[in-house]
Amino acid sequence: MVPVSYANRARVAAKRYHIIPATITYEEAATITSVYLCSLYRLYHLGGLKESQSVLILSAIEGVGIAAIELALHKKADIHITVGTEEKRKYLRDTYSIQRSHMFSSRNTKFAGEILRAIGGRGIDVMLNSLVGELLDESWRIVANGGTIVEIGKRDIVDRNTLAIEPFDRNCSFRAVEMSFTKDINNDKITSLFNKLLVLIEGGHIKLIHPITIFPFDDVPAALSHIRAGRHLGKIVISNQEKGDIPVTVRSAVRKLKLRSDVSYVIVGGLKGACGTLDIHMPSLGARYIVVCSRSGIADPTSKRIIRPYTNYSTTFVEARGDISDPQAVRRLFQGAMVLRVSLAWCRIAKLILIIPVG
């Protein structure tokens, strides 16, 4: 890691610092950065949306979707959206005058055919996607010739799922955006996006994100429950709304379990079932010597498969065959540990911690 001087830190902070216009409240300002910067970059820079082109915005009622609608309206685009409930459809129709015939549900693959029929089979010029699996595949196939799909989701990318190649034969582009970890999303890029965004806002070309649902600092659990319910519109903001200091109960973080590396842990019952589940976590918590006591041993394929990934932790597994219900077998196990104590490879093997999963 390269040390960063205080001067460098100040320059970084300055490039990401923008004055809130007097006409914008703190709560409104809190909704701008993540959704508008992401949508601006996706729609204008990666998608290259031009005036009067068709655009499909998936999950349009959330913050990113509403920001994308505002930006698409500024380009006078032909807007199509997916939205889940009638309440949300009514809000988008009343607020943005989006026709009901341009609204679809993306809960199954039927929406792709419905969209193609609605636009005369031409396809979508720019699509902002967050769907996965077969829904992503269907979305990708209805991109117009020379069109672009901009992906904001991560699951298909992380899982290395395959993507149909047919649209590439029609000069279609598939582009993904990550606003956090790519080298091109640097301070200069963020500054440029911010400047363009504030020009659009202050010029009245796009509106701030609404509606905003505000929860106080002392009721964060209710805000999270509201998000999980999946019925919220717009953005959720946590704010004290200038009501002064609010006492907030903070629970201490749960202490992370740490296992000693200079003792041996005896797991009774082998590595199958509950014992195997327990064994998965022990090396990552610090255990370096694990004695597995069972009647069948650990030479079977299942046990080997469980052990294999944890050699990276330099954890040693030792087989101790025997029946834990047999006193003689238990005596031999501990006597063997005492004898092995002299081995340098086993540190203090005499210090045994016995683990017997139950249930």
Report what the structure shows.
This protein has 13 helices and 12 strands. It is an alpha/beta fold and 359 residues long. The chain folds into 2 domains: 229 residues, Medium-chain alcohol dehydrogenases, catalytic domain (Quinone Oxidoreductase, Chain A, domain 1, Alpha-Beta Complex), CATH 3.90.180; 92 residues, Rossmann fold (3-Layer(aba) Sandwich), CATH 3.40.50.720. Helix 3 packs across helix 4 and helix 3 crosses helix 9. The chain is elongated. The N terminus and C terminus are likely disordered.
Brief synopsis:
This protein has 13 helices and twelve strands. The chain is α/β, with parallel strands linked by helices. The N terminus and C terminus are likely disordered.
